[in-house]
Amino acid sequence: MKNYLKWPIKLFLGGIFLLVYGILSAQTPTQSIKGTVIDKDTRQPLAGATIMVTDQNPVMGVISDAEGAFFLANVPVGRHSLRCQFLGYEPFETDGIIISSVKELVMEIELIQASVSGQEVKVTAYKNLNDPVNDLAVVSSRSFSPEETSRYAGSVNDPGRMALSFPGVQQGRDDGENDIIIRGNSSVGMLWRLEGIDIPNPNHFARPGTSGGGITVFSAQVLGQSDFFSGGLPAEYGNALSGAMDVHFRKGNRTEREYRAKIGLLGMDFMAEGPFAKGKSSYLVNYRYSTLGLLSSMGFYLVGERVTNNFQDLSFNLAFDGKSGKDFFTVFGIGGLSTEHYQPVEDPAEREPGVANNF
Question: Which among 318, 293, 314, 316 is positioned nearest to 303, based on CA atoms?
Answer without folding.
Answer: 293
